[in-house]
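Long-time lurker. I teach an intro course on protein structure, and each term I like to show students one example going from raw sequence to a predicted 3D structure in token notation. This year I'd like something fresh instead of my usual example. Would anyone be willing to generate the tokens for the chain below so I can use it in lecture? Attribution to the forum is fine with me.
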Amino acid sequence: MPSRILLVDQEEKFQQALAKRLEIAGFPVEILTDASEALPFIEGSDVDVLILGDPDDGANFLGLLAEIKRLKPHVAIIILTPHVSSDYAIKAMKLGVYDCLPKPTNIGELIERINEAVSGKPL
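-- Reply from a regular --
Happy to contribute to a lecture. Here you go:
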């Protein structure tokens, strides 16, 4: 059974395009536009991978990531952000984020990371 993905991104056009590409690749995808909705959604569903477009409020966002990993440690989190800094990536990885990728991202690389994450392969 393919990994179930929750895609959360505020940019609707990007979100729709990425979801379509992931579905073509065989992944079932659920979509949300608000990161604050991710936690309640994950609590009540069986999600394998959470792909998050990084909102501007970094501190609150990192807190959300910590809470998600506390409640559902098995969920692999991949962050898509236009401003990947080594400091930010280190903080995110310490919270249990699987990877931080640039936004926009190469779909082949994203699919590779999704497959690695659900197979338990470390980066």
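Some talking points for your students: The CA atoms of residues 52 and 67 lie 14 Å apart. The mean pLDDT is 86.
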